[in-house]
Structures are given as structure tokens and as C-alpha cells.
């Protein structure tokens, strides 16, 4: 850990004057516990963000996503500072369980310790240190005491600097300086360079940033790029056919784990080369040779029956994230997970569980050939010793690589086999609240490497947010339909001499609830019918609609004439002060005399089909919308209603839509009425709302009330 890198983050360009306080403290901590790399954060003035001040042993790019960390972020340094304790992460499996966001970006085997830099009264920052996967171990008491004491000493110095108004600024990162001087300077002697030149394979040396500091002639020949163009560049940037994130990832994996890694790549048009990376704390050595065995195999695709999991790539994540923003219902979420996630990880079946009233309930499933198997998991108590309940209660994902492993931990699964051989139980946590569990099932025993566990755990967060939103939508949808059903008549009462039928279609935007209403009021004398439309598509409009419908019933029952019913309802609406208007059409029916008396308040005109099949639009006299003018009057019109006549009352949603002329829409409605008017009334109602009912989007609600006169 000597020397200063020439590649620093922007924040580190402001070097503090005086002794490098932070760098020396960090180096002392790392030396005392043989840490591989580390970093130090300082708390900002608002004490809400940790800002990286110096890093050692690794390029700053490795920690780029965490240059600034919110104090509440789910990362080790934030937990250490917020909770004032040492945080120990024991390798990649532990990281994927506890900090999946970190594990997704750095899915490599390494251990990490994070500690607060704090006095009794103030937190000044935090420190993290890492160990390679091949060397990490639980910190012993001596190491814990060394790190804790070093952080306490640093906190006292930072406190003193603050008291003396001496700002402590970010410092240059501690990295090994890149070698210079060509082959002899790199290898130490000319004879050593000659030895390398005689080797049958190529050798390349990389610094910690991945830049080439030496390349042998054989390496240059194998990869097809002159040595002069290689030196000082990154291998994947200098060689076009190595410009793939997969190859850069192998370099990161070697540095983080301090374990040798390898990969094969094809040099166009068809020469396969093998790259073996040997890391140390000063950089990497890369051996390049021809991969003859791979060349002879050719580019064979894996057999179609290969059940091995395929790690979800960033394209899958972005695709799923975009798709989930469009998911509306719970079943939409289940379908998207089945189409986007399950195939990407090799899962053959999935089940989404939610909790209600202390029990697990199956919200949706795909891939299970026998639905009765899924039913066994529905209604299981959350207190039951099952993996689904445990994942939901604990918030910790569970991965079972075989049936033996699952049944050893959960013997209860012997009684509910599902025919699969491996499982991933992913808790769905949204806004800190558990909303369900996603179960992925595999046809064959399945290994779950740490990187895949981390990706699946992070994906579960996206799924959880979409599921939470879908559950709220479904609840709202059910509430809206329940409220609408309660405000509209559940059925129409029988009337003497009059057949009735009605339809209601909610709008497809907003809450699926609106102010359209209809009603039929029987009585000892003439019956009454009403249809109306309160402005708006929300709970307020629906509630006002219920009040208007109740008022019309009351005024009809006490015997008010049609004109007076409209005037009374208008005054009521104004007295309520709702600032909403309503259209209305009220009819007093007298089939014995073959007459109907109508009063209209700004409502679309009804259609009348005469017994001979002719249809006319009844252009009735009327008054303004209800709720505008308290002194308004509503003239009435008497209409012939001979036996066989059909009256069609409707709201404007049936004939009004963007881009459609209302006169043309009325003409088409009249034509359908003329052609189908002899059908039973329920069939006729379906015909008249057919076009609107099949529309993928309805801006407005649709209410329809049909009245057919019969012989008394």
C-alpha cells in the first residue's frame, strides 16, 4: 500500500494541507489486520450523507456506486455509522442475504468489516475493510480491538480538527504506482525479459486499474495488437473483441477475491484464446494461450435439456423493471414474473404468496401441472414451520438446492410434494413491509451461486413494489365496484304493463366509479323511471349520485308531479353545496293510458321505437342541469307509449367518445334499435351497449335503461 495513484475521483482532487491524516489512519488499520483493501467516509455537514474521502488497495471505480451513501442506505458503512457498531459480512453468501444491492454490483468472494468513526457525542464518518475470499476469517478479539481503537483515535483527531476549524478534506487514494520504464523496468533485468520472450505463450501485466504495463511479443502476436498500442491502456479497451463487460468482470473478480480466474474468448474470425489471470495486491499477471480444446469443440450451444440456471443479466433487470411499471393487477405481476424472471433463471414454476388474517394465500401461480398441489399451500398459518412462512416472517431469502435439503429443514414438506427438485423462496418487502413471498421451483437439483442469489434478492424488491401497488389497485377496484353496486339498484322491480332492462358499464379510467345512475320506482298509481349523470368519476360523484337517487325516490313516493320532482331535486343539490352538476331525465309512466310524462334537466334526449319499427329522437323541452339555478323550472312533455313501444334512456357515455360526431353516434344507435327492437329486452340491451362494452377504453361511464310497453 505505497505510492499515490494518478487516477482519482473528483472529490479527491481537493487534497487537505498538512499530514495525510485519513490515509495514514486507514493504512494503519489495514496493516494491523492484513486487510486487502479499504476506504474511509466522512459525514457531511447535515449528518445525512457519508462521502468517500480516501480508498486504498482497489481502484475507486470499484466503489463508484457508493461515493456518497445516505445514512439510511442498506449498505454496511451506513449501518455501522447509524447504529454505532462494527458490521461484519462473512463472505459473498452473507453479503447476498444481508446487502443484496452491494452483492449485485460486486458478486465476488470477499469479507468486509465496517466500523463507525465516532466519539460519544458525534459520528464523524465510517471505515470499511475487505479481505479476499480465500483468506477471510471471523475477526478475532485482537483485530476487533485494533480496529475499534484506531477508529476512536481518528474520531478524537477529527473532533480536535473541528474545534480548531481545520477542515479535513478528501485525500489521494493509496494505490501502488504503475510501473514505468518498459520491459527491463518491469521485469527487473534484461535476462528476465529474454526468458519471457522465449515462452510459448503470451504474458501481460496489469496494474490495479487494469492498465497494461507490460506485454510480451507473444501476447501481442496472439491478440493481434502491437505492443505500443497496448501499453497504458486497459485490455478490454485496446482489443475490440475483448470489449465485453464479461471480460472486465473477470478482472474485478480476480482483484476482489485474490484468486486466479480465467476465461476464453474468440479472436475473429475463429481463433479461441485462453486468458488466465493471477492477482496480487500490486496488480495482475495474465497468461494468454491458444485454447485448442475449445476450438475443436466449436461453438456448440448447450443441449436444450440443460436445466442449469442462467444468471439474470442487466437487460433482464431493465426489462422487468420497465414491464412491472405497467403491471396493474396482481395477475399482471404474476404473469410478468413468469415471462421475464423464471425463464432467465431456469425456473420451471412459480408461486406468489400473500398474507391475510395471519395466513398465507396463493395470489397466483404458473407452471404447476396439477392445481390441486398449489391449493395445499393456500391458507397455511404464518406460524407454521414452512419455508414460505419463514421467508415472509424473517425477510430473509431461502435457497434449497435439493429436495433432501428442503425436507431436512422443513419435514412438513413431506406431506405436500410439488414434483420439483430445488426452490428459491424470496421475501417480497416493499416500503419496509412484507407483502408476500415469491417461490421459484426448479425441475432439477440447482446450485445457487452467490451472484445469482444477490440478483434474485434484488429482483424480489422490484416484484414487491409492483405487487404492493397491484394489491392496492385490486382493493381499490373491489371497493369501487362494491360502492357502485350498493348505490345502483340490485334489480329492477316488476311494473304493471312495463318491461324493464338496464346496463351499467364503468369507465376504464380513474376509479372505475362514477355518477351515472338509473332507477325504477313502482307505486300504487303510475310508476316512475329516472336516469341521470353526476359530473365527475370519483367517490364524491358516486356519493352525490346516491343522494339524488334517494331524493327522487322520496319525492316520487310523496306524489310530486314530474316537474316538481325535478325542481325539488335541483334545490336539494344546490343546498348540499357540492359544486357538482347533474343531468337527469324523469318519466312518469301510465301504460294503462298509453302515455308517459317526461321532464328533462340537460340530459341527452331519449329514443322511442314505435310498434311499427320506426325510431325517433324525442327532442323534449327541458331546463338546465341540476345544481346551477335554484329558481329553474322544468317543463314536461307527454309522449305516446302504445303497447310494443320501446323507450331507450341512456347517459352520454353511450354516444360520446373522442373523435366521433354525436349526431352520427345517435343515428347508429337508432339504427341498432330499429333492427333489434323486437328482441327480448335483455338481448336488446346487450346489442345497444355492445360497441361500448367491447371498447378497450371508455372515457365515461355508460348507463342504459330500456322500457317496453305491454298490453295491460
UniProtKB/TrEMBL annotation:
Single GO MF annotation: protein serine/threonine phosphatase activity
Domain PPM-type phosphatase: 495-709
Catalytic reactions on record: O-phospho-L-seryl-[protein] + H2O = L-seryl-[protein] + phosphate
Alphabetized InterPro entries for the sequence: Bact_Sigma-Reg (IPR052016), GAF (IPR003018), GAF-like_dom_sf (IPR029016), PAS (IPR000014), PAS-like_dom_sf (IPR035965), PAS_4 (IPR013656), PPM-type-like_dom_sf (IPR036457), PPM-type_phosphatase-like_dom (IPR001932)
Function as written in the Swiss-Prot or TrEMBL entry: Primarily acts as an independent SigF regulator that is sensitive to the osmosensory signal, mediating the cross talk of PknD with the SigF regulon. Possesses both phosphatase and kinase activities. The kinase domain functions as a classic anti-sigma factor-like kinase to phosphorylate the anti-anti-sigma factor domain at the canonical regulatory site, and the phosphatase domain antagonizes this activity.
Nucleotide-binding listed as a keyword: yes
GAF domain location: 329-477
A Pfam family hit: SpoIIE
Class of enzymatic activity (EC top level): hydrolase
Name listed for the protein in its UniProt record: protein-serine/threonine phosphatase
Organism of this sequence: Streptomyces chromofuscus
Enzyme Commission numbers on file: 3.1.3.16
Keywords: ATP-binding, Hydrolase, Kinase, Magnesium, Manganese, Metal-binding, Nucleotide-binding, Phosphoprotein, Protein phosphatase, Transferase
Amino acid at each position: 500500500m505505497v505510492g499515490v495513484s494518478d487516477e482519482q475521483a473528483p472529490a479527491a482532487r481537493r487534497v487537505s494541507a498538512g499530514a495525510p491524516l485519513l490515509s495514514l489512519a486507514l493504512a494503519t488499520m489495514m496493516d494491523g489486520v492484513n486487510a486487502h483493501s479499504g476506504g474511509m467516509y466522512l459525514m457531511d455537514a447535515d449528518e445525512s450523507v457519508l462521502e468517500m474521502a480516501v480508498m486504498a488497495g482497489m481502484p475507486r471505480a470499484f466503489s463508484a456506486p457508493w461515493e456518497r451513501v445516505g445514512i439510511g442506505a442498506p449498505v454496511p458503512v451506513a449501518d455501522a455509522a447509524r447504529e454505532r457498531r462494527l458490521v461484519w459480512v462473512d463472505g459473498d453468501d452473507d453479503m447476498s442475504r444481508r446487502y443484496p444491492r452491494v452483492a449485485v454490483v460486486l458478486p465476488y468472494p470477499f469479507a468486509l468489516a465496517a466500523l463507525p468513526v465516532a466519539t460519544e457525542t458525534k459520528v464523524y464518518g465510517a471505515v470499511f475493510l475487505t479481505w479476499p475470499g480465500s483468506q477471510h476469517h471471523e475477526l478475532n478479539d485482537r483485530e476487533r480491538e485494533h480496529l475499534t481503537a484506531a477508529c476512536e483515535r481518528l474520531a478524537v483527531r477529527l473532533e480536535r480538527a473541528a474545534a480548531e476549524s481545520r477542515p479535513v478534506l478528501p485525500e489521494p487514494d493509496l494505490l501502488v504506482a504503475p510501473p514505468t520504464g518498459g520491459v527491463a523496468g518491469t521485469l527487473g533485468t534484461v535476462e528476465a525479459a529474454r526468458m519471457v520472450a522465449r515462452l510459448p505463450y503470451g504474458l501481460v501485466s496489469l496494474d490495479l486499474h487494469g492498465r497494461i504495463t507490460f506485454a510480451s511479443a507473444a501476447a501481442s502476436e496472439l491478440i493481434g495488437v502491437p505492443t505500443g498500442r497496448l501499453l497504458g491502456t486497459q485490455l478490454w479497451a485496446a482489443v475490440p473483441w475483448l470489449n465485453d463487460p464479461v471480460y472486465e468482470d473477470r478482472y474485478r473478480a480476480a482483484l476482489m477475491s485474490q484468486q486466479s480466474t480465467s476465461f476464453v474468448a474468440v479472436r475473429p474470425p475463429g481463433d479461441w484464446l485462453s486468458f488466465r489471470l493471477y492477482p496480487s495486491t500490486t496488480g495482475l499477471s495474465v497468461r494468454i494461450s491458444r485454447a485448442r480444446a475449445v476450438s475443436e469443440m466449436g461453438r456448440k450451444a448447450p443441449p436444450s435439456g440443460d436445466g442449469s440456471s442462467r444468471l439474470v443479466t442487466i437487460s433482464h433487470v431493465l426489462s422487468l423493471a420497465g414491464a412491472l411499471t405497467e403491471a396493474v393487477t396482481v395477475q399482471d405481476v404474476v404473469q410478468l414474473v413468469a415471462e421475464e424472471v423464471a425463464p432467465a433463471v431456469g425456473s420451471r414454476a412459480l408461486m406468489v404468496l400473500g398474507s391475510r388474517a395471519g395466513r398465507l394465500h396463493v395470489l397466483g401461480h404458473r407452471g404447476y401441472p396439477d392445481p390441486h398441489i398449489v391449493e395445499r399451500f393456500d391458507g397455511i398459518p404464518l406460524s407454521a414451520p414452512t419455508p414460505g412462512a419463514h421467508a415472509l416472517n424473517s425477510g430473509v431469502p431461502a435457497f434449497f438446492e435439493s429436495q433432501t435439503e428442503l425436507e431436512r429443514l422443513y419435514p412438513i414438506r413431506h406431506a405436500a410434494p410439488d414434483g420439483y427438485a430445488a426452490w428459491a423462496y424470496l421475501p417480497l418487502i416493499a416500503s419496509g413491509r412484507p407483502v408476500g413471498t415469491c417461490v421459484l421451483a426448479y425441475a432439477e437439483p440447482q446450485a445457487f451461486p452467490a451472484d445469482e442469489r444477490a440478483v434474485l434478492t434484488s429482483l424480489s424488491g422490484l416484484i414487491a413494489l409492483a405487487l404492493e401497488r397491484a394489491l392496492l389497485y385490486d382493493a381499490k377496484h373491489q371497493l369501487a365496484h362494491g360502492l357502485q353496486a350498493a348505490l345502483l339498484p340490485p334489480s329492477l322491480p316488476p311494473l304493471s304493463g312495463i318491461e324493464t332492462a338496464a346496463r351499467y358499464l364503468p369507465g376504464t379510467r380513474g376509479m372505475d366509479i362514477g355518477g351515472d345512475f338509473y332507477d325504477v320506482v313502482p307505486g300504487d298509481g303510475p310508476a316512475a323511471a329516472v336516469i341521470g349523470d353526476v359530473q365527475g368519476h370519483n367517490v364524491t360523484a358516486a356519493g352525490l349520485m346516491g343522494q339524488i337517487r334517494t331524493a327522487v325516490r322520496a319525492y316520487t313516493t310523496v306524489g310530486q308531479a314530474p316537474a316538481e320532482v325535478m325542481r325539488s331535486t335541483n334545490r336539494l343539490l344546490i343546498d348540499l353545496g357540492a359544486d357538482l352538476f347533474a343531468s337527469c331525465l324523469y318519466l312518469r309512466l301510465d301504460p294503462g293510458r298509453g302515455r308517459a310524462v317526461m321532464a328533462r334537466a340537460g340530459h341527452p334526449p331519449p329514443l322511442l321505437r314505435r310498434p311499427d319499427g320506426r325510431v325517433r329522437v324525442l327532442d323534449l323541452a327541458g331546463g338546465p342541469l341540476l345544481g346551477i339555478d335554484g329558481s329553474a323550472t322544468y317543463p314536461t312533455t307527454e309522449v305516446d307509449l302504445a303497447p310494443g313501444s320501446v323507450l331507450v334512456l341512456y347517459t352520454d357515455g353511450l354516444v360520446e367518445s373522442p373523435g366521433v360526431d354525436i349526431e352520427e353516434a345517435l343515428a347508429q344507435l337508432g339504427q341498432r334499435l330499429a333492427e333489434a327492437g323486437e328482441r327480448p329486452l335483455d338481448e336488446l340491451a346487450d346489442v345497444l351497449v355492445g360497441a361500448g362494452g367491447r371498447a378497450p377504453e371508455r372515457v365515461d361511464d355508460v348507463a342504459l335503461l330500456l322500457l317496453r310497453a305491454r298490453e295491460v
